[in-house]
Every structure is written in structure tokens, then in C-alpha cells.
Design a protein that fits this description.
alpha+beta; four-stranded antiparallel beta sheet; three-stranded antiparallel beta sheet; elongated
Length: 191
């Protein structure tokens, strides 16, 4: 009897939620069984019209799947199947200060990273020769590869990828990369 009362309550609920009026006939039992069998969460409520959603690709090449703006920079280097381990690294921010900044505080510089002109990345590469290092720098990505280590680092700021400095200290087995930070409003902080 439980199943009949729950099925009838489902039918009553479906009648309340549907806008279409139904005739009361002797076939209530057939309607009851067919409605319970066909009832799913998607069938409760008013009937929704299906819209034919077509997506239009605005691209010169019809074979492209996505625009180049949608792909994050540096994703072409991201290789999750590469078994090489990531080296230890440290990101430091560097300011160019003079005596007027240190002793007199005459400029508008403070200790925050917003006032830093350079990013210094120190990467520890034990048992590595400088000839084994491959370094590629994009606007917001540093990609370092050696035979034993791999580092794909998304930088916190855009950098000048054409005018950077890299030095390898063989005694410390450390690579130090210095990159100039490019920000839109640097003329305000450093003007």
C-alpha cells in the first residue's frame, strides 16, 4: 500500500507542477503506472523547450579549437609526464636605491614588492654544469631544463624577457637569474 500512496502522491505533485490539464478517466491506473515509470527529476515541472545551442567560432582558421588568448602563457612548456624533479628555488625582489632613498627617504619607495624594479630567482642545481642548462624566459614564464631537473615557473609580474642576466655560481651550484619587472604604472612609482 505504501507504493500506491507514494505513487499517487507523485502523480498529484506532477499534476500540480505541470500546466497541462488532464482528463479524469477510468484509465487513472494506467496513467499512474506509466507516469511513475517515466518520472525522473527532469520530468517534474513545466516542460522546457529545447533550444538548439550552436557555438560559433570567430577565427580565421576553421580548424582551431580555441583562440590563442584563451591558452595561458607557458602552457606549451607544461609537461606533467616529465619524470625530472623540480629544483629548489627562491624568488627575491630587488630595489635600486641610492643614498637619498636610504638616508633621507626622498623618493616614494617603500619596502613593498610594488616598488621593486627587479626579480632575482636563485635556483639550486646540484651536480650540474653550466653547459647543461637550457633557460627560456617569456613575459611571465621562466622555463629551465637540465638533464636531471626541470622548472616551469610562472612569474608574479611581467618581465623584460630580452634584457635579463643569468649567472651560474659553480662553487655554490646555483643559477641566479635577474629580470627587470615591467609594470604599467612604473612611471608613478619610479618617476
Amino acid at each position: 500500500m505504501d507504493s500506491v500512496s507514494s505513487a499517487s502522491s507523485l502523480l498529484s505533485l506532477a499534476k500540480l507542477l505541470c500546466d497541462a490539464p488532464e482528463d479524469d478517466d477510468d484509465d487513472d491506473e494506467d496513467v499512474l503506472h506509466s507516469s511513475v515509470n517515466a518520472m525522473t527529476p527532469g520530468t517534474i515541472g513545466p516542460v522546457k523547450e529545447e533550444s538548439a545551442g550552436t557555438f560559433q567560432v570567430k577565427s580565421e582558421n576553421s580548424k582551431t579549437i580555441w583562440n590563442t588568448e584563451e591558452v595561458p602563457e607557458g602552457s606549451e612548456y607544461d609537461d606533467t609526464w616529465d619524470p625530472r624533479e623540480q629544483p629548489e628555488y627562491e624568488i627575491l625582489f630587488k630595489q635600486r636605491v641610492g643614498t637619498e632613498d636610504v638616508f633621507f627617504g626622498m623618493s616614494r619607495k617603500d619596502h613593498s614588492t610594488a616598488c621593486c624594479e627587479d626579480i632575482v630567482i636563485k635556483i639550486k642545481l646540484p651536480e650540474t654544469k653550466s653547459s647543461d642548462i637550457t633557460l627560456d624566459i617569456q613575459d611571465k614564464v621562466l622555463d629551465l631544463r637540465t638533464p636531471k631537473k626541470k622548472l616551469l615557473l610562472h612569474l608574479p609580474y611581467s618581465v623584460d624577457s630580452k634584457n635579463g642576466k643569468a649567472r651560474f655560481f659553480s662553487e655554490e651550484e646555483t643559477l641566479e637569474v635577474t629580470l627587470r619587472v615591467l609594470r604599467e604604472f612604473d612611471f608613478i612609482n619610479f618617476g
